[in-house]
Design a protein that fits this description.
heterotrimer; A mainly alpha (359); B alpha/beta (327); C alpha+beta (561); B: 327 residues; alpha/beta; Rossmann fold; 2 domains; 4-stranded antiparallel sheet; 23% strand; disordered C terminus; C: 561 residues; alpha+beta; 12-stranded mixed sheet; globular
């Protein structure tokens, strides 16, 4: 009655640890390399793509100015203005050189991404730093909340898959998931914001306030954030709910669930330790994937709710062909998405021991 | 001595939108205390469905249609497993009714440590952490595993170790009845033999009663006291191991025994054809299309199960005349 | 088991409801402007599609000049306001010497800045010098001072011009023109970076706050404004960037805005929801027209161009443009009513400059050698003619329907014209770069003043290669006759008999050559909420996104409802 051939697990733990640490280090290094490469690729693509779009910022600037003044300027005045802004924006050089200069300044110049047109003469970097908290605040909070609610709700719906309430929830989630964010947001604005007047439906906070640590300001900030976040949450959350439900149902068919039931565990324990926990792992991966896919929805929401985030900034920059700002928004969006994805990726081994050992 | 488990008219099937297709039809079976009963049959004959039905572990679209399975414990307490409330059944599980699934499948949760999976059921039955842990260690010893495995995750264990952990978990509460479903499938022959020996030892040490479900006549020969042969959802023959192996009555049992590989290595003729699926069980005797001894009546009338000597039943028209003349 | 499941559901739902409710209750104030009394506040809902600069009030920066904070409207004051009526403002008048080499500007005495400091000749002289010194930095309102010298005598500034220039005063009378800045603020500052953070100018308001997050700028009236007769009625001016039109409709219906632009499509709805909402209609001083690219055959042929002009059903454009009177056909390609002295009626008649006459167009095409072959007009090489017509959609129906009407009419005479919708940035680039066949455009002569800009833009100076930005009429038109006329017009005194004769000749040449054609004069609509303020009337110069809005502030009267 010996089991010598089987009793090998954990024997080589000490050797494994050193090798494992090396592997983890290599993995991290590779991961970071991919991270940098993605950033570089994104900014390079953005740099050239934006310049391929028809529309010259100088023409737009002068066109707007001429309309504002209701007259043609004399040619010399126009030339002087164009020459000056071309120089400021580094557009007086050939395109490859512009690109090299841009990268050089961005890397060596301490993230000097050039001046902006949108909020001239503000530096693009400052602009993005000022706007990013709005986007990240709305975005990460709503995605995380949507994930939490969607995961909980999806687990519940999957667990009670045959109940009528659950089937109704599936229908509703499916409808919400295919509804464009724009429509959901507009619906919330019209009904909750204006028809029933429950919550404010535009702006980051009440117009007469200035940012300060007072209850009035904070409550205004929070109430103004509800509808935009809700718009995002409804659509993303519906997706998470359906995803979690599907995962739950597939986990419910697993053998270890049958075994757990055979053990006579309470239904709650079976749900918590066997079904939910296992369905959670792919659901966390889904979070990482969704993070990137839903940022554009947040941009639309910002425009509709007049939030001073990266989305509104991008729309304005696009209207002016403000390349520096457009590039910076792309750069920081990719950066934010990559970082959030990385965090989720790093969190995954905490949940899944199979990854923990092999990574 | 009354049977420990008395299965009566158990019928279970697959629910589709329109109808239920029976997979297990009208099974009657007694299990005596302390014995090892082997339920044997080809893949798809419904033996796993039978096990799941007894364990009340059928999952959609499997449904139980009718029947009873009376479990008698200690001093004449009897529970009908098939009609007990979910809550009451839960009280019986693990303490009186244990289940050993096939270990090569994902019967262990990949994200929980072995210890958690071995002790969670114990803790819910009121054991302290210490007691639960001790019991888990003791159970592991029964299957020759070391206590430190408690810290492992399932994916760190070999197939044989996983099967042993599952056995250990299932016997940790010293259950009265154990249903073991295909526990040796996908294991190498050496490990298979070890595990069967361990299981037999557990029966001896704990006095448990075991129903072992297998497609392998060899396994039955090694470990079982009594055999129930199943074909196409029905029990076709029941008898002691020696009776069945020495003198199989049903042509199907004969075929099964004939197809066991001998040590001489010569290939013996197997059963021709394939077992029918539940959607096209033949009329009359379900075995008749493959039966070498088929005759007229087999094609029209399903044979009833009839006793053939002490503790011996067979369902085959070949033996009808005898009973008819006896009558 | 079921009890447990239901319990979880109820718990989650209750939690969600509770959190919603508590947050909803926390919001107990109305969504207006805190302690600003609504009846004393005038709220402009600006669209400001371009820049988003909220912390800079630098008058010299091209990108920040056209902003949504209202500073150019409530604090920047020009020397003269001339957009509708003539008003002496920071200056009283001007005069030229006999040969147009000197201009005397008389400034207004006793003005002051909105920080209380007096606005003196010293500030004027400082600003002139400051602008001239910084001209090479490409700042606004500096290049006209190149080679100009000046001296001050009492309230007069005498400008000595390097060559005769009878139009020097236009630099003080336009909509966006030269205006003095306070010396004590700007001295030593770099005009390319200074933000003028306290928004010091001479207008009747002071900056209270400007918030880039909420896009709201609040101005408060000052009691020490230098001209008590022109003290505006609203105590507070709020300029804000309005939401997308879909959402802004509700703000209007709630009466949260007083003045602003909205798409025509929602006007009727808003007016029925809020009876105080009135549309104000005002004819834009710049008529709309079409430019032909004269380097693209057959558009290089003036007969072909005139034929296209005859295919423009201007009245149909006006009718199709939804709101009655929203667009009107125009005869003279500048301003509302033609000034006889600059206009050759006989030429207009002869060349049918505003006529819609497809038969005449067909006859002209036959005559010019573009025959119909298999139902299609072919060019000189025998190829069927196909042209693109570029247009943009900014919500004004006239801007889009012309292209389709032209396409339809052209098809009837056998010419293929494909309307192509552009986004605004592309339009603003492809136009000046000459990358088009036919393009929509507005034509401002010289506002205010003589119509030289209409012909100046046709000088071959502006006929740059395709792809280079042209500051003139970007159709790359050039002809020695037009060049000769424009050269003379540039130095002529527009008020002189001689100049008027030149204008009439230029007009005839334009009518015959048709490098561009007129389309219609546009009546732009603005939404005015009369619940709190009245006094604005149809036809006034209310163009709120230009500095002329300084004037409309004075028209406002409290509604006292």
């Amino acid at each position: 009655m010996t089991a010598n051939s089987d009793a090998t697990a954990g024997n080589s733990a000490a050797d494994g640890q050193a090798a494992g640490r090396r592997e983890v280090f290599q993995y991290a290094l590779r991961r970071f390399g991919v991270y940098l490469f993605t950033l570089w690729a994104a900014i390079t693509v953005a740099f050239f793509i934006f310049r391929l779009v028809p529309g010259d910022p100088m023409n737009i600037l002068l066109g707007n100015l001429t309309r504002a003044e209701g007259r043609q300027r004399d040619a010399a005045a126009e030339e002087a203005i164009i020459a000056r802004y071309r120089q400021i924006f580094g557009m007086d050089e050939p395109l490859p050189l512009q690109y090299v200069n841009y990268l050089r300044k961005a890397v060596l110049g301490g993230l000097d991404l050039g001046p902006s047109f949108v909020e001239y003469p503000a530096q693009t970097k400052d602009l993005v730093f000022r706007r990013m908290p709005w986007t990240l605040g709305i975005f990460t909070t709503s995605v995380l909340l949507a994930w939490l609610v969607g995961t909980g709700l999806g687990a519940l719906i999957g667990w009670l898959q045959r109940s009528r309430l659950s089937q109704l929830a599936v229908v509703i989630s499916t409808l919400l998931q295919i509804t464009p964010v724009y429509l959901v947001a507009l619906g919330l604005i019209i009904y909750i914001g204006y028809t029933w007047r429950i919550l404010p439906a535009g702006g980051p906070y009440a117009r007469h306030l200035q940012p300060e640590w007072t209850w009035e300001f904070i409550s205004s900030l929070l109430t103004h954030a509800i509808l935009p976040m809700l718009s995002n949450m409804i659509v993303i959350g519906a997706g998470f709910t359906l995803g979690m439900r599907a995962l739950m149902i597939s986990v419910l068919g697993e053998d270890y669930l049958t075994f757990a039931r055979a053990k006579g565990l309470s239904p709650f324990t079976v749900l918590k330790d066997y079904a939910f926990r296992n369905a959670l792992i792919p659901q966390v991966t889904a979070l990482a994937i969704i993070v990137g896919a839903t940022l554009n929805g947040t941009f639309i929401i910002e425009v509709l709710f007049q939030l001073p985030g990266l989305g509104t900034l991008f729309v304005q920059a696009m209207g002016l062909r403000d390349f520096n700002t457009m590039q910076a928004v792309v750069l920081f969006s990719i950066f934010a998405v990559l970082t959030l994805t990385l965090i989720v990726d790093l969190a995954l081994p905490l949940l899944d021991p199979r990854i923990r050992r092999t990574a | 001595m009354p049977a420990l488990l008395e299965i009566c008219g158990l019928t279970a099937g697959l629910q589709s939108r329109r109808a239920i297709t029976p997979v297990v039809s009208n099974v009657d079976l007694d299990v005596q205390p302390g014995e090892i009963l082997g339920v044997v049959g080809e893949s798809g004959c419904g033996k796993s469905t039978l096990a799941a039905a007894i364990m009340r572990l059928l999952v959609t679209p499997q449904v139980l249609q009718s029947g009873s399975a009376t479990l008698r414990i200690d001093d004449d307490k009897a529970y009908d497993l098939l009609n007990l409330s979910e809550n009451d059944l839960r009280q019986l599980r693990w303490r009186h009714l244990s289940y050993i699934p096939q270990g090569s499948m994902n019967s262990l949760n990949p994200v929980l440590r072995v210890e958690r999976q071995m002790t969670d059921a114990l803790l819910q039955r009121g054991l302290s952490k210490k007691e639960a842990s001790d019991r888990a260690i003791a159970a592991l010893e029964l299957v020759s595993l070391e206590a430190r495995l408690l810290d492992s995750y399932p994916h760190e264990l070999s197939g044989g170790m996983r099967q042993r952990v599952i056995i250990a978990a299932a016997v940790s509460m010293h259950p009265t009845l154990i249903v073991a479903d295909e526990i040796t499938t996908a294991l190498d022959v050496v490990t298979q033999r070890q595990i069967l020996q361990e299981l037999a030892a557990i029966r001896d040490e704990l006095g448990a009663t075991i129903i072992i479900i297998t497609h392998d006549m060899g396994v039955v020969a090694q470990i079982a006291d009594r055999v129930a042969v199943m074909y196409a959802g029905e029990i076709v023959e029941v008898g002691s191991v020696s009776d069945i192996f020495q003198q199989p009555l049903h042509p199907y049992s004969q075929g099964l025994i004939a197809s066991i590989p001998r040590e001489s290595g010569q290939r013996v003729e197997g059963l021709p054809g394939e077992a029918p699926s539940p959607w096209n069980y033949p009329a009359g005797c379900r075995f008749h299309p493959r039966c070498p001894k088929v005759f007229g009546r087999c094609r029209e009338h399903a044979p009833a199960s009839q006793p053939q000597g002490p503790d011996r039943w067979v369902a085959c028209h070949l033996y009808d005349q005898e009973t008819a003349s006896d009558d | 088991m079921y009890l447990a499941k239901r319990g979880i559901v109820v718990f989650v739902l209750a939690l969600a409801l509770l959190s919603m409710l508590s947050l909803a209750l926390a919001q107990d104030e109305e969504l207006v402007f805190g302690d600003l009394p609504r009846s004393e506040t005038f709220i402009v809902a600006s669209q400001a599609p371009h820049n988003d600069v909220w912390d800079s009030f630098n008058y010299y920066q091209a990108p920040t000049y056209n902003n949504a904070t209202g500073y150019a409207n409530v604090i920047v004051e020009p020397a003269f306001i001339t957009s509708h009526d003539f008003h002496a403002w920071l200056a009283q008048g001007w005069a030229y010497n006999e040969d147009g080499t000197e201009m005397t500007l008389t400034i207004t005495e006793g003005a002051n800045w909105n920080d209380g400091m007096p606005l003196t000749m010293d500030d004027w002289l400082f600003t002139l010098q400051y602008n001239q010194e910084n001209a090479d930095k490409g700042i606004n309102w500096s290049s006209f001072l190149r080679d100009v010298t000046w001296s001050a005598e009492g309230s007069d500034i005498v400008f000595s011009l390097p060559e005769p220039n009878w139009r020097f005063h236009y630099n003080f009378t336009g909509i966006g023109t030269f205006t003095p800045v306070p010396r004590h603020v700007w001295e030593g500052q770099d005009p390319t970076t200074f933000k003028n953070p306290d928004a010091i100018h001479s207008g009747p308001y002071r900056l209270v706050s400007s918030n880039a997050d909420t896009r709201t700028t609040i101005w408060e009236r000052r009691d020490d404004y230098w001209d008590p007769d022109r003290m505006p009625a609203p105590k507070y001016m709020v300029w804000l960037k309005r939401p997308e039109a879909d959402v802004a409709v509700f703000e209007w219906e709630d009466g949260n805005f007083d003045l602003g632009r909205m798409p025509n499509s929602v006007m009727i709805r808003m007016m029925s929801a809020n009876p105080y909402i009135k549309p104000l209609v005002h004819q834009d001083p710049c008529p709309r027209g079409l430019i032909f690219n004269t380097t693209v055959p057959p558009l290089d042929d003036n007969l072909f161009r005139r034929a296209l002009g005859l295919l423009l059903n201007r009245q149909a454009v006006a009718n199709l443009a939804n709101v009655p009177g929203y667009v009107t056909p125009v005869l003279w390609p500048n301003l509302g009513s033609p000034d006889e002295n600059y206009y050759d009626a006989a030429a207009a008649e002869e060349f049918q400059v505003t006529a819609f006459d497809p038969d005449a167009a067909a006859a002209l095409l036959d005559e010019a050698g573009y025959p119909l072959v298999d139902g299609k007009r072919v060019d000189k090489d025998g190829e069927p003619i196909s042209l693109d017509a570029l247009y943009i959609d900014i919500g004004n129906p006239g801007w889009t329907v012309w292209a389709w009407l032209l396409s339809e009419q052209a098809q009837l005479v056998g010419i293929e014209i494909n309307p192509r919708l552009l986004d605004i940035p592309t339009f603003l680039t492809q136009g000046p770069n000459g990358e088009f066949d036919i393009i929509f455009r507005w034509f401002c002569g010289n506002l205010p003043g003589d119509p030289i800009a209409l012909f100046e833009g046709l000088h071959s100076d502006h006929a740059l290669p395709i792809g280079e930005r042209s500051g003139g009429v970007p159709g790359r038109y050039s002809s020695p006759e037009m060049d000769a006329l424009v050269d003379q017009l540039r130095i002529a005194n527009p008020a002189s008999e001689e100049a008027q004769e030149l204008f009439r000749q230029a007009y005839r040449l334009w009518a015959e050559e048709a490098p561009y054609v007129t389309l219609y004069g546009e009546n732009e609509g603005v939404v005015f909420n009369t619940e709190y303020w009245t006094g604005l009337a149809v036809g006034q110069a209310w163009v709120h996104w230009t500095p002329a809005a300084r004037q409309i502030i004075d028209f406002l009267e409290p509604a006292n409802r």
